[in-house]
Amino acid sequence: MRSIALTRTAVSAAIAAAALAGAVSVADAAPRVSGASLKQGSLPGNRLKANSLTGVQINESKLGIVPVARLTNFAELAREAQHAREADHAVNADHATSADSARTADSARTAETARSADDAKKLGGREPSAYMGSSVRTVFVASGTISGADGSTSVTASCNPDEIAIGGGGGWFQVASDTPTQLDAKVTASVPSPTTGGAMDGWTVAGRNSSGTNRVLRAYAVCTPRFS
Q1: pTM for the full predicted model
Q2: Starting at the edge strand that comes first in sequence, how are the strands of the sheet with 202-209 ordered?
Q3: Residue 59: is its pLDDT beyond 50?
Q4: How far is CA 53 from the centre of its chain?
Q5: Which residue range is the domain that position 108 belongs to?
């Protein structure tokens, strides 16, 4: 019985060895496939070993933009467009502000010029007519010869129409002389003209000559330009 068991074991081992040898010989005899024998585009991706391709085998420049990256590009373009619009709005706002400032400055200058012009027309808050002109002249008028036997007369010295009188006076003078008389010749009135009030335009003098000698009555007015 023991010899029969050993014989069966030996037979089984022999069969297994023969099967292994046959498999190895079949594998060696199988044809090897190279890349040149494969048709382009015939090998599906699921026949590749996972993670077996790297940047060396892949031309990244020919890869398209993935959807998420495309959305990112769109978002970036939108932000740039928004920034451009905001920049335009800021520039327009600056221009509008500058224009408003310029108009305000012009208005201020115009108003200031108008005030300066009004102030220039006034001196110390008074109208020009409230001040005396810088040029002053004296106007003299003389009567004819007046008898010394109690003769009387009156004369008025008048300024030009564009002048006003700021003072005046008069007296008796010797005939054909600028020497005042020292005899009995009276000035009975020496008043502005007109005597009814208003702006003075001259001076009136009246008198009586009781000196017994002929004399001349003179009146004078101090005139200065009239302001309109």
Answers
A1: 0.46
A2: 151-158, 202-209, 185-193
A3: yes
A4: 69
A5: 66-121
